[in-house]
C-alpha cells in the first residue's frame, strides 16, 4: 500500500545558513516551535525566563500561538517572522513568545476567549496578542499581512502603534487591563442548578436548536466555512428521532462524498471552505479523524449504510499507515501545505489522471470523482486543478457503462491504487510527529470502538499499542503529561489538562469493553481519582466540604498562575472535558460503586445547566451526560469460558447500544467489584442490569437481544 514519505515538520521559513538557530526553540519538543528557530525574531517559549524578562525590562509581550499544520501560520511566518526588518521591530520593543496551542491548550483557551471579548468575533490561528508584562491582553488579532490588505492593517504598523502606545500611555493601558481581567473572570459559570430543576429531555432541546442551523441540501450546520461538529452528530444519533437521524445521515453522507474526505488515501481534512463540502482546508488532524471514525462507526450500526463502512475502513487504514509511530503513539497532524502550496499534494492537473489510468479505469473514475466536469480548485500555483469528490454515484456509472456494480467497484479500486501510488511520489505534507496524550486517547477510543463494531482485531491492536505508549511515557506517579516525541522524550514536563484526563478515562472504558482486565479497571480508577483530586472546584483544605461551585477547572490545582483559570463545558473542535468527564465518571462510578465520582459528575451537571439550556447546540457532550444521568445506570455483563464468547461478541458488537456498556469477563477473573462479580458457570450467561438490579441470567444470544430491545423490563 502506498505510503507518502512524510517528513517530520520542518522549518517554515529557512534563514540564511549564517544565522545560528535559536537554541531556546531548537531544543523544544514541538515541531511548531522548532519551525521558528531560524527566524531572525528573538523568540522564547512560554516559560519563567521569558515572563521574568518582560517584567524586568518592562516590555510588553508579543504572544504568537499556532500549530505545525496551520497554513496561515506558515504564511505569516514567511511574510513577517522571516523578514529582518519586521523582526528588528519585534526584538526592539517586545518580548516575543511562541506557543504551540496543541501543547498549551490552557494558554490558547484563555487568549482565544480574550480575543473574542476584545474583537467581538471568534479567533483562530495564528493568534496574535500583545500583552502587558503581567500577561494581560492589550490588543488581539489573528493573521496580519505585511502590507494593508482586506481591511487588515500591516503587521509592522501594528507593532509600531502598540510600542508607541505602551511608551506613552502605559498607566492607562494597565488600568484598562485590570478592568478587562474582571470582565474575563465573569465568563466563568457560578450558579449551579438544583437537580430537581433539570430539564426533562436534554437531547430534544439540542435537536431543536440544531434544526434551526441545519442545511437540508448539503448537510452541516450554518454557512461556510463548515466544520464537522462530530459531537453534535453523536448526539443526533443518540437522540434517534427521524428528524435527528435525517440531519445526521445527510451531513455524514455529504461529508463522505465531498472533498472534505480524502477519496484516495482516507481520512478527513480540517473543514470545508464552501457550503458543499467540496474544497477543504487541507490539514489533517488526529482529533478530527478520531471523532469522525467513531461517529461513522455508530452511523453504520444504526443504518447499515455500506458507504459508512467504506469511510471507516479507509480512515482506520490511513491512521495505521500514516499516523502511527513505530513505537506505538499516534502522530498529531499532517500539514495543509506541500512544496509551499496549500493542497498541492492532493489536487490533480488536467490530463495527469487520464495518463495514469487505463481506459476502463478512467471510464469509471473520471465521472465518479468529478473529473469530467470543469476544475474546482483555484488557489495558488495549483489553480485550475481538480480536487476529488464523489460527483456521480458508482451504481449510476455502472448502469451507463452496462457493467455490474461489482465490476465498477473493481475498476474504481484499481484506479484509486494507481493514483495513490502516483501521489505518494510527490513532495508530501510535513507531519507533526509529537505524541499528544489527549488526542491519542481520542484515537485509541475510536479505533477500539470501530474494532468492536466491525470485528477488526488489527485496529484494536493498533489502539493498544498507542495506549501502552502513553501509559509508559506520559503517565507517571498518577499524573498525566501532555506531550512527548515518538521516542517518549520531552523538552519540558507539561502537565496534561482536564480534557486529556477525561479522554483517557473514556478511552479506558472502551478498552474494558474490547477486552476486560482488572489492570485496566485499576488504571481507569487511578485516572478518575487523579481527575477529581486535581481539577474539581472544591476547597482543597477539607475534601469533605461540598464543592463551592462544582465542575472541573481546565488546569490542575498546582498549575502555574495565569490571568484566568478556565472552566469550560462548551464543545469546540473537540468535546469539552467537563461533559466527557461527567459521562465517564457516571459509568465508572456505577461499575466500581464509587459515589465520589458520581457526585463530582452531578456537580458538573448542576453548574453548567443554565448555559447549556440557553445554548444547547454547543453543549452536546454535557447534554449526553445529563441524558445518561437521568436513566438508571445500565450494563451488560457476560460471564463464562472465554472460548465461548465469540458468537455473543458478534451479536452485540455490531449493534448500536450506546446506553449498554457490554463487558465480557471470563471465568477465573479475580477481585471483581460487586457490580461485575456475577456467577461463573461452564457455559456463557449474560446479565442485563440497570442500577443495582439485574434480570435473571440469560443463556442464549437471541434472548439477550430481545431483553436489550425492551430495556423497560429492567426495574
From TrEMBL:
Coiled-coil blocks: none
Residue ranges of every copy of the Spermatogenesis-associated protein 20-like TRX domain listed in the record: 24-184
Domain of life: Bacteria
SUPFAM superfamilies, A to Z: Six-hairpin glycosidases, Thioredoxin-like
GO-annotated biological processes: carbohydrate metabolic process
Family matches, as Pfam families: Thioredox_DsbH
Biased amino acid composition, Low complexity: 1-24
Segments of this protein annotated with the region Disordered: 1-26
Name of the protein in its database record: DUF255 domain-containing protein
Organism: Rhodocyclus tenuis (Rhodospirillum tenue)
